[in-house]
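Re: export button greyed out
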Amino acid sequence: MLDSAMAALASLADPSLLIMLLIGTVAGLIMGLIPGLGGTGAVAILLPITFGMEPPQALALLIGALAVVHTSDTVSAVLLGAPGSASASVTMLDGYSMAKKGQAARALTLAFLSSMAGGIIGAVGLTLAIPLARPLVLSFASPELFMLTVLGVSLAAVLSRGNIIKGVSAGLLGLILGMVGTSPTTAEERFTFGSLFLGDGLSLVAVALGIFGLAEIASRASQRRGEKQTISLGGGWGQGIREWLTHWTQVIRGALIGIWAGVLPGVGATAGTWMAYGQAVATAKDKRQFGKGDPRGIVGPESANNSVEAGDLIPTLLFGIPGGVPSAMLLGMLLTYGIQPGPSIITEHLDLMYLIVWSFAIASILGALLCFLSVKQLAKLTKVPFAVLAAGLVAIMLLGSFQEGGQLGDLWIMIILGVFGWLLKSTGFPRAPFLIGFVLAIPLERYYFLTDSLYEGFDWMARPGVMVFLAILILPMIWAFIKFIRARRHTNLDDGHRDEQPEDDEAPLKNSTWSLAASGIFFVAFAAALISSASFSPEARLVPQLVSTGGLIFSGILLFIEIRRRLRDRTPKADQSISEEAEVILSTQPAKAGWTLDARFALKTFLWMTGFLALTAAFGYLIAVTIFIPAFLLIVARARLKVAIIYTGVLYIVLLALPSLLPIDLPQGWLNTLV
Amino acid sequence: MTSNKSSLEPPGVSPDGTAGQAEQTEQPDPPKHSRRTILAAVGAFALLGTATTVLGGSLLNPPSSTEDGDFSGETLEFLIPLASGGGTDTWARFIGTELTNYVAGRPGFAPVNEAGGEGILGTNRFARSAKTDGTEILVGTASTVVPWVLGRSAVKYSFEDLKPVVVNGTGGVIYARAEAGVASVQDLINRDTPLVFGGISATGLDITTLVAFDLLEADVTSTFGFEGRGPVNLALQRGEIDLDYQTTSAYGSAVEGIVKEGKAVVLMSFGQLNEAGDVVRDPNFPDVPTVAEAYETLHGKKPSGEKYEAYKTLLGLTYTYQKGLWVPQETPEKAYELLRQSSEQLGTDKAFQEKAAKVLGGYPLVADTGMADRVRDAYKVSGSVRSYVTGLLADKYNIHVE
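Workaround output, generated via the alternate export path:
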């Protein structure tokens, strides 16, 4: 074994292999930077190039790209609040908060180092897993996978940052949204309103980019000036590395969770990364800083999302079961070389297996190094006025999200969810549970039904694996419940006042008409889901009905709280026992009544996006960009004319060149069909 | 490309004229631009974009000339109605890349994934608005064939309106878990407890296997909802289910090993349709009896009747002629023939066959002169077959096709 490992390492000294690895790494980094493309884009662009290469070269190229996509997708998440991929939205929570405090370089340093470590640990895991993979995968039967998804969904409570009712409501709504499409058990269409387009379910990229990315753009597009304070690295790289080293346990934990999530078919990178975050929060003694720039919130998930890719290679190579689109493409490539994945790959192609391991590790280091060296330059991006960046970001994110299925409908969904995401964000609903609910909806239902129909009664509950999960689940739940009761006692019936949450700048529209409306939307959505699921067959109906009933209860409580507060706010002086603090809150936030400047600006931005998409639908993407970008830059961002002209010109050239350089299609409009 | 370069200089804009506000950017909010500036800039760029789209459309893609014996300067656009990364996608990209080298004039290759509705949306779109000059090619696969066979109302295409350029088959085997008490085909009937078959969805590729079980009168119950065939194979190894099938390309990684270890038993292969439309042994599994032979072993007579007819139809559609490249029926004969002959050359090229052995799963690319007729026969689905299949789904699996 060691011999082949060393032989594989020696073969990497071959310059042609090294060059391929380097090209792959750079391509992966670039594709990771562009929101919406990610690993799928990286492999898709490189795959046609590999036809005609020798297997080692081709593998070095693809693995190089695959290993680093999740290193660079952090950049836009941290700097701009627009995640480069669905799983990068996890890093965004704390990374972006840190960047907003002027510590972008610190966040990026932590993220890159963690990515690198995650990649290396992933590669080691890949090596060790070769003999262990089969028993590991086989020991995870449907009941264990079901419990795993339950655990994932229950993280919604952990991730809801102090407001469990809002967090659970958001998680449940995410579950409902995830069930749009074909039911996994009965193959009937649910919540599609007869639309074939919705039959495949909503695209994860569109949902993640909408709920996080577009929402962020809308709430910040009013910033016509860049960050004033200069971003310093704060003591140089040495300090960054030293700080990172203090979190080494998080790195290892995150990476292990990542490998594990990658090995199990059906869990996926996004859910795996969330779980890494969830465990970091759940096991931390002091949770207050999470979501506000806690380094642990960056380190854990960043290690995880790189090691997921390594973990994913295990079932891909050993069972021929890819866990995601990129590894599916890799599988396809192996087949074109006549390399048959399966248990025998270890005996027949051990050298290639080790080549993959080494390539993964080297690419991880190389990718992190390249990113690390550019931290300073990258961090300068925050000096550019956000409104100026927003114009290009909208164009790029919509283009990125279009690539997955080539459907304009995905983009409309993205904008609608953008508005919804903005509403959630501004009214203090955590969005993380929403996304995790969305991702896990179908696996949860799938494995529930498989468990139910393959095992008799509740026999499966007695399986040792299941019991471990039950323990992990129930103990923190009890703890959370105790804390919840305590917290409520402390708040003394005053819901607007939370002593451990001075983060109302994050949610400026909390306790306003807007949050009342948000609660109303939740309530109506759950009610509608409950009513329309009545027409499904019994099997397809069960889970949606349970979820929407639960949602009705939680959103009902929310609605009740909101209405009660409004009634009380109307007569604030009648009750003298309301603490003075509450009055202070009321008086310092006079604009809460409703139509604030920010809200107006955000909604206007969404109108701009809608206009952009309408232009695309009518005239195609190129014309839409040449109209939208200069108009947005001049009117909204008030950029200098020169900036606007160069900006649009560059984008125009890029759009012209892109389709022939990369496997990217521009959305076609009605006009294109005429020409 | 020349037209692009000349249009790079935006016409009608005076670049430096209004940039005088430069110094004010450090102040709180930059001032508004005058309406004239905005209109001029946006208008100029809009013009540029429109010009590129309109001119670029016809200059970059001049009207095709595919009937002149070569495809030089053209681009073959493959419409893949499924998301990138799957088996069909890999197949199409591989074939496309290779095929374009064989087509005279060496056209470009542009795979386009248009996913949605499990392949139905993209195929609908193709049927509605594909170019009929031979440059736009549909990739057909079981995902789009089965809903058409079932007559789903969402399907707006018909394979009878399309012409096959090349087809590529696949095959598969049905195997069982040894520990479930299965040693041979005989153990499928007269059981104390039925065997559990693990499926993805009754309205997908699984349908052929379900019809085979119905034909054999096998004592089988089915659990659907698995994510793919790989997870079903794992579930069988874990003992959660007893019966599974795998296609030929997955056989090596999923089945061969556990059969050697004695954990699983191969029961039968689906077989292949020969030119006369009969079920014959699969060249990749020459020693494995087909479903038809299994019927004889179990029931002592040759299979016949509506169930067998349905099985043969589905075998042709979902295995023997499973994947294919299609063009609209109206495609000019010359363009069509050029594509077909190029595919035939590709399929018979020894170097390609070697290279493609795994991607094609051990089945040849078929594009000979008689292919179109055979495919047309195979893709004729009689009313009785359709009603039997929808009836089977409704009665046994409580699935009502709309």
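Confidence is low (pLDDT under 50) at residues 492-504, 573-593 of chain A. The button fix ships in the next patch.
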